[in-house]
From TrEMBL:
Residues 4-74 form the Polymerase/histidinol phosphatase N-terminal domain. The lineage of its organism: Bacteria, Bacillati, Bacillota, Clostridia, Lachnospirales. Pfam families: PHP. One of its GO terms (molecular function) is 5'-3' DNA exonuclease activity. This is PHP domain-containing protein.
């Protein structure tokens, strides 16, 4: 049985391994394929695919699916749409991601100013010195505050300073779900509702979300996920069948930023069969 992982982050966004290191780890983890899905960027895809080609030529076959994870606004909440099999050279998607980066930069300037008012010596320039050209997220803020002794842990940083209800938090400008799905389709990809049970909705609200997204062209649901328990996976597969969606699976690997989640195996028991990738490819062919 071959296994895959279709939700993976590198240090191009808020992971800690380079795209090449992620691919090398995937080979060591005996995975047949991964999807690199960094937040609002495709910047790591070329490096990851080059590393995959090198590993494959060395006798360690590994496939890298080009992807991204887009943040969208739904019912006063930030939810995520994965784009899988997207064309990294698509100018429309590239420009949309660039616009999202600029808006994120504006928001980061405002948030660092708020945190300085709380006595935290943080600026975007200082974050850049730590993180290079990575897409800066709240995880980078938290990491900085832990490193320099302002917080005991990343969870402490989120609880005190970075949660949505914190006085220091600055909301982002988001794409609408329809805009994100259309962008992914324009770039030749499949759109997938990421970790639908992670948003603290009731099961009824999760179905309402899936129905809403399905009406706007959603292709799939991330039914297999690191934090699933009990009947979670079965419930998501039921929704996928009800709304004619394919299922995907991913660990949401972030390296040391989520130390309890391992590539390919999540919290230890995650298994995503290669057959899921084959069904995704079939869906992509039928839609295109």
């Amino acid at each position: 049985m071959k296994y895959i992982d279709l939700h993976v982050h590198s240090n191009v966004s808020d992971g800690t391994l380079t795209p090449s290191e992620v691919v090398n780890l995937a080979v060591k983890s005996q995975l047949a394929a991964i999807a690199l899905t960094d937040h609002d960027t495709l910047a790591g895809i070329q490096q990851a695919q080059a590393a995959a080609l090198s590993e494959t030529e060395a006798g360690n076959p590994i496939q890298v699916i080009p992807g991204t994870e887009l943040s969208v606004f739904y019912r006063k909440r930030d939810i995520h749409i994965l784009g899988l099999f997207v064309d990294g050279n698509n100018t429309i998607l590239y420009q949309a991601l660039e616009n999202a980066r600029l808006k994120r930069d504006e928001r980061n300037e405002k948030m660092t100013a708020n945190l300085r008012s709380a006595g935290i010596d943080i600026t975007v320039d200082k974050l850049r010195q730590e993180e290079g050209e990575a897409v800066l997220t709240r995880a980078h803020f938290a990491k900085f505050m832990v490193k320099y002794g302002y917080c005991k842990s990343m969870q402490d940083a989120f609880t005190r300073y970075l949660n949505d209800d914190s006085p220091y938090y600055v909301p982002r400008e988001y794409l609408s779900p329809a805009e994100a799905i259309d962008l992914i389709h324009t770039a030749g990809g499949l759109s997938v509702a990421a970790h639908p049970l992670l948003y603290k909705y009731t099961l009824e609200e999760v179905e309402q979300m899936v129905s809403y997204l399905s009406d706007r062209g959603l292709d799939g649901i991330e039914a297999i996920y690191s934090t699933n328990t009990g009947f979670d996976e079965g419930r998501m597969i039921h929704l996928a069948n009800k709304y004619n969606l394919v299922i995907t699976g991913g660990s949401d690997f972030h390296g040391a930023n989520k130390p309890d989640i391992s590539l390919g195996s999540g919290r230890g028991n995650l298994k995503i069969p290669y057959s899921i990738l084959e069904k995704l490819e079939d869906r992509l062919k039928s839609r295109n």
